[in-house]
Amino acid sequence: MRLDSYKWEQAEPAPASPLSKPLEIGLKVRRLGLQDYEPIWQAMRYLAEHPREGRDDEIWLLSHKPVFTQGQAGKAEHILNPGGIPIVQIDRGGQVTYHGPGQLVAYLLINVKRRKIGVRELVDLIEEAIVETLAGFGIEGELQADAPGVYVDGAKIAALGLRIKNGWSYHGLSLNIAMDQTPFARINPCGFENLAVTQVADLIEETGEQRNLMQEVSSALASALKTRLGYQP
Q1: Residue of 173, 190, 200, 214 with catalytic role
Q2: pLDDT (tens digit, 9 = 90+) per residue, 24-74?
Q3: Is 33 part of the annotated catalytic residue set?
C-alpha cells in the first residue's frame, strides 16, 4: 500500500521553552480510513524491520474491517466462538481483541530509542491521551492496575498493545466509538472472562443525527497524542 495516497499532515513542534531545546523530530499523522487488517500490520512491521535514519515518527488513524487479533501470549481458550470473523495471530503484546468498523485505531510508529523513552512511558502517554480525549466528551476514563487500557465504570472502552523492534514502536490502541459490539461476546476480551465493553456513543448525549462522532474523537485523540509527543495540538 502507498501511504502517501491517503490524507496526512505534518505536525508542528510546540514552541520550546527557554530551558528546552527545539524539537527536531518530525511527526506525520496519517488518516487511512477503513482498512483490511493484514496489509496495515505488514506495512508497519516492515517499517520497524527496515529502520531508516532520519525517518519521521508517525501516527496512523484508521478503522479495520471485522477481525480478531491474537497477541503473542494469546491463549486459544479465550476465543470462544469466532464464527465467520477471521483470526490473525500477530506480534503485539496482550491477548485477543476485536477490531471492526466504528472503532478508532491509532498506530504509533515512534522511534523510542531516539526519543529516549521506555515502553512503560509510552503506554502511560497513550493511556493519558485516551483519558483526556474521553474527558472532552464528558466521559470519565479510568485506569486499572495490571490491566492496560482505559475503562468506564469497569467496562473496557479502549485497549492497547505494542511491539518494539529496532528501537521503533508499532501497533497501538483501539477506542470503541460507535460500533457493533456483539463480536466481543465471542471472545474473552484481552483475556478477561466476562469483561464488559462499552463505547463513546453509548455514554454521551447525542446532539443531532448529523454528528460525525468518529471524526470528532479522531481529531481529539490526535491532538492529545501530538501534545504528549511535543507537538502543537
Answers
A1: 190
A2: 789 999 999 999 999 999 999 999 999 998 899 999 999 999 999 998 888
A3: no
pTM: 0.93
More confident residue, 153 or 76: 153
Cell output for 215: 471524526
Of the CA atoms within 13 Å of residue 140, those in its CB half-sphere come to 2
Q: Is the pLDDT at 204 greater than 70, yes or no?
A: yes
- pLDDT, tens digit, 9 for 90 and up, residues 103-142: 999 999 999 999 999 999 999 999 999 999 999 999 999 9
In degrees rounded to 5, what are phi and psi of residue 202?
-85, -5
At 186, the amino acid letter reads R
